[in-house]
Fold each of these.
Amino acid sequence: MFISLAVVLLVTASGTLASYLYDEGAPFAARLCAGACTGIAVFGLFGFVIASFLGLTPLTITLALLLVVFSALLVLTNQDRRTLVQYDLRLTGRAVRRGYLKPSGPQFGYIVFYAVAAAVLWQTFQRAMIEAPEGIFTGVRNNFGDLPFHLSVITSFAFGNNFPPDDPTFAGVRFTYPFLTDFISAMFVRCGASLRQSMFLENFVVGLAFVGLLHRWALVLLRDKLAAILTPIIVFLSGGFGWIFLWNELRKQNTGGLMSVLRSLPPSFTVIPESTWRWGNAVSTLLVPQRGFLLGLPLAVIVFTQWWLSEKEEEQELKGELDHRGKGGVKGKGKKSRQRKEAEIDPQPAAHLRSCFSSVPLSVRRMIAAGLVAGLLPLVHAHSFVVVMVVGGCLALLQRRWRDWITFAVVASLIALPQMWWSTHDSAVAAEKFFAWEFGWDHGQENVVWFWLKNTGLFIPLTVAAILWRRDDRPLVSRRLLIFFLPFTLCFLVPNVLKMAPWIWDNIKVLFYWWLASAPLVALLLARLWRQGGVQRPIAVGLLVCVTLAGALDVAAIVLRSNRDEVFNADGVRFGELIKQQTPSRALVVHAPVHNHPVFLTGRRSLMGYPGHVWTHGLEFAPREAEIKRVYAGAPDARAILEKYDVDYVVVSPLERNLMTVNEQFFSNFKPAGEVGGYRLYQIAKP
């Protein structure tokens, strides 16, 4: 665990140093947040490329780490940047000491906000996977199906030498699911962390960095400190009108008080099984169970931030050109004024706060950085990559800053296209399963308007109100901000008419970007109402509670409840260890097609895992599932099927007996390779 933590600190420091190449004027805390996400992602990508040739060995991890660290250290070869880094460190140190010894009102507010966010995320990710003598559990109900899948991916890299990667739930098929987040956890496992530690460390660091990145993005978008704080709250506590069910819970709990009610909350007030409540809370349904999304979202926010700042920088460059021609005032006025302000803060580093690459415009450097980060996304989270490129293309048409947008597209393509080609060539995925016309997302038979109103509450009306708000003939949402926001509406419109994954609910991976982009507008409206004072203040608070209460209840159910769902029992965990000890790393194992089989703890190849996972990957699983059932039934062609797939081992356990007919006489013909409790492993003799 300590080695993994040291690696995270090193790659975070490297990503932070790299930010000095493009993100001028960024607060040091924002650099740390961006550095954590980009450093971890680059470390994972370098590691995967090297591991594809050398395997996942200590040498691979060392080489990947050295590449990341030495690449970032090049930043310090420039004297100006070294001085700027030292200045930022001194300034940050002073701010930390001042905040600790004598905090001002805003500083105290920020401390409380981030302390609460860190505590909630810590407890949430701690409960994502719970290890106990009785087995492995999860305290996040929506993680019950996803946890075994992610463990199967992590162990396939860490223990199964899965290079080039096969789908760990469907052996012999190229793995096209974005796996980089799980590969990074596998690297931590190889550094000595346990499975639980490897996921928690990555999840917590990236999750907390995401809070900071949202805060910074909203601040540069809105220039409103209150709205910037409200934005991550609205994003993380996403939900609709599901909080109305709280009253039923309060009526049930006549005694015990509020804490008793909170500790016995239902698992979810946003996604309710067998109903049309489908808009899941960001934390409980996206960030915890869908680990690729957890890293994809903050990377995308880094890109969005640089897009916005790049446009501002280009406007300043154009203004400078006009000044130079005598059409806009004194030459260099804006830049000199900015330098004077910097000198007032600290005269010594003022000269070093200027651009270190005067020959490359800052707007272009921002777009280069945005392209590099966007290029990391295909193996992290494919839906995020599609969103970033489509929204970017629309913004390019609206803004017509051709130099900057062409730069972004070229850089992003250079990084992303090799990953996309590698992922898609020789793929067994049936592309036609991903796309089809389907109106209204996951509304079932319910009226679409009512479906969206109850699932997102007042969020859509508040977004519209923010756009239409006028006071003294001045709009709340500026024209520039409105143009920036408009392409994100496609993230709502397109998933409402087009199915973009075999399972329609997965459209939320695109839909959520609409919520993400709308949240700053809603936050700005609430902040404006608050500042008007009087009756508007309780209205603002009431609206914020209405938008976030359902999501807050979902998060509270994770943090405060002691309930946990068993994923692997104790015998299953011990059986997984037996398989790792008794079988080669690339052994092919046949077992029941269930989501939580102990084989997924071993890294060994699985002939077929849970059909629900295989189906969402766009693979045809029915023939193989039927063959597995014939093997366990001891059908006449059972041996031929085992030979067809070159199977090494077969598991017979309560999971197989509960799901299928098991011909015990047939398996008595094979050599026993080990047994734990009711779990037996048989070795299949090769002809």
Note: Residues 1-102 form one domain.
Amino acid sequence: MAPHRQTPPTQKLWLRMFKDKSLRKKTVTLSHYWFFHFYFWHYVKHQTAPFQREMFDLTESEEYSTVAITAFRGSAKSTIMNLSYTLWSILGKPGKKFILLVGQTQAQARQHLKNIKEELENNGILGADLGPFREEEDEWRNSCLVISNYGAKIMAVSIDQAVRGLRHGPYRPDLIICDDIEDMTSVKTKDGRDRTYQWVKGELLPAGDTGTRIVFIGNLLHEDCLLKRLQQEIESGNLQGTYREYPLLREDGTCLWPGKYRTKSDVEAERQRIGSDSAWHREYLLRILSDADRVIHPAWIRYYDEFPPEKSGEMEFRYAATGVDLAISKNESADFTAMVSGRVYRAEEKDLFVYILPNPVNEHLTALETLERAKRVSKAVSGGERSKLCIEEVGYQGMLIEELDRDGFDVKGSKVKNQDKRSRLALTSHLIQSGNVLFPRHGCEELLNQLLNFGVETHDDLADAFAILLAYVLEEGPGSRLEFMWLVGGDEDRHPQDNVRWHSLGGWPYENILNMRF
């Protein structure tokens, strides 16, 4: 039963527990750590690491109603937080009565349940101490396990099931454990990530009751995956709970589980076994390593907090412009009309900078609505004057260009020159990489999502409007090196405040830009 894997003080307690059944039952009932190490000794192949001890502490604490854990592949998180914690919650101090095990698919959820059932049937010392376990199968058969002498039920569900309203006698689910409910396919697009998040918020959480604890465990699959969204909510104070992250290697290069990976050679052997740098960084180091086919990389993104001073002597405001990607349809599955605006500055060394305006136009609009919105954006981004509109000149778009020109707006048709959207975005990517394009810290989340995940997201309209605008600045801007700081327009019919005097766009107060909607 591997007492040699305990530290000297715990070895003594372990030996006392082994000889004294009364002491053993009292200890394992109160302590998940000892419950696991005594009854699940066959899983303890290496000395327990401090981060795993922290997981046990989280299960024993009643401080947090939500626990979210991102840990490296092979960290034993599922064994501790799913298999062992489920049984201890019923057989030990928590005394839970109705537990939901949530998997991405029903097959995965049922496998979790099968692992638990096998322990109840085959773990002799567990049964001798805390059993016998009278198991019953209800009408759901392989999806449920009822431990009748404890009055408890464990149910396996998947993320495509309706779970609100589930009960076991008088009990609603009092413990919910979500284990790897996302995969690389489901997080590939924002639509997929949103579906999982909305199911958790709209279906899973309402299934619980006052005092229900919910545990999420998994790997880092995307910068915007469910676990990262939960982290943001917890750290912002919008969700009561705790988020823990356990990479295999700390920032100083030391290993988080020295009992399993004793030397750097052991870590290197594991890395070589994985074989993929992106998988190694993502699933073991908990870092998203950009794939080779990514057009824009996260590390390239630069932010600004304010515009250059009007008379700093270092930066001179030149002009404002808007890139427009048209989609004349209000069908929910159709593309969006997107308008991305930016203000361009020239530095003393003749380089150009563009600041991106927050809150881009990204809506389903009719032809008439698009025409009126383009006019408002043109005026709004230049303080009432008519700024440049750059519109892709393909097919019916030419009619909009003619109409805007007839109404006196400064409009330019953008020729695609037989280039696809990816190629057009790639031609501007070096400007972002060099730090020449800057984004506001808030208000460009969807634009950045489309840029960073171009080619996999369902919609790319904002990214295309962005490329149209940058292409215009490239053509018009003098000098061999361009620096851009971007600003993007919004989505409501509201003009800037009337009491602001627009002497020039260069003197436009930054706080008014941030609150602007079109």
Note: The CA atoms of residues 295 and 426 lie 6 Å apart.
Amino acid sequence: MTQESLSELMDKRRAAIDGPDPRATERQHAKGKLTARERIGLLLDEGSFQELEQLRRHRARGFGLEDKKPYTDGVITGWGTVFGRTVFVYAHDFRIFGGALGEAHADKIHKLMDRAIAAGAPLVSLNDGAGARIQEGVTALAGYGGIFQRNTEASGVIPQISVMLGPCAGGAAYSPALTDFVFMVRDTSQMFITGPDVVKAVTGEDITQNGLGGADVHARTSGVAHFAYDDEETCLEEVRYLLSMLPQNNRELPPSEPCADPADRTTDVLRDLVPAEGNQPYDVREVVAEIVDGGDFFEISAGWAENIVCALARLDGQVVGVVANQPRALAGVLDIHASDKAARFVQFCDSFNIPLVTLVDVPGFLPGVDQEHGGIIRHGAKLLYAYCNATVPRISVVLRKAYGGAYIVMDSRSIGADISLAWPANEIAVMGAEGAANVVFRRRIAEADDPDAMRAQMVKEYRAELMHPYYAAERGLVDDVIDPAETRRVLIGSLAMLRAKHVGLPSRKHGNPPQ
């Protein structure tokens, strides 16, 4: 290689890194946004990034594109490491064509996704683009189709994480929706199918971009986003943390780490943390914190469907998925959103060999016309299907009450939980004692001289006969009634026993889960 050719190569690479216009970088920073390369630098271990097709340029003609052929074509692709493990990444470069997707741009992403699937390593997309490149017409739309197809092929094979760091409109929003987790940054990232102008023209509603599809909207109202943060630096650091808890692919176990928290640590505070009265609220996250290593857990969709908690944590250094009813919100009932949230989390954990720990304190499904008309039956069936279909180790713990169909759905022994445990104050029944007495002893109560006294007596008898803490254990529906202080130790011991669990499944193309 001559000195001239080497110098030319270095000039081209420098142009690819700097971008076509220094002012574009200034404009990006003025919006409070980092450049694509700065974002990759925060996500990956220092010095680990290996770029692919840095000198790629589009081949489109017309509409002035032949005079604008910047290197990278508006997307940076490659791989590096996060905590020493390989991760593939692509990042839209908003400085070039507003990050819009064209034929060459899409082809780079397709190749990267194919490599990630073949290598069996996570894929992270850093999204900041203006959608399809209008000047390239239908070829740009076809590029999105190729991305969606590969998102689907990779689903359940490698972890896929979408990080929204700018606008994402129209069909482009469907790729993040197909991935496992969506991160957003407040004020700078938005997702919507039709923008505010179209909404106003069609419906007359006047709304801002953030009001329509901002981070908090999707993290709290729609459930599209799993995480929302105030700045890009925090967001990308949390992506790194999530990756540290995930396996590289569906053929591996999640990474373990040394644990300084004793496996046999007792948690005496749990004996008093959960009120004995079934209608008294408490924060189940405090229970989770007492049980898991160092009190540390990573909650998924914390702002949406708050009546159920889904989190990744570690027990004795091993990653587990925790699903827990949250009595502090809607008394911990299951409703449409809670069922959807938990079902997808259970499916994710099962896809990537993450054992499930379910903490049960559920009074039932949320009653109401809106819930029934909204399809609570099929939404609840999603959670039921997810648990029944899961082959990872599954342990459930009834903390206090477990009533009706919601008890069955929350990974009861009857739908395949490997180990079913309960605390001494548990109440497992078809319904609460008051409601049951009103049904079973309706005539006797109505005919009594003092209906209220008779009702109280019947409630007491029903609770003593059918709802005492050992009723389910005596019938083999609960494996053991344990001291709450021993919960951590028992869970760790049970998970160790189940670590080599193997389940043979019937031959089928795939199941047909509830819609």
Note: The chain has a mean pLDDT of 90.
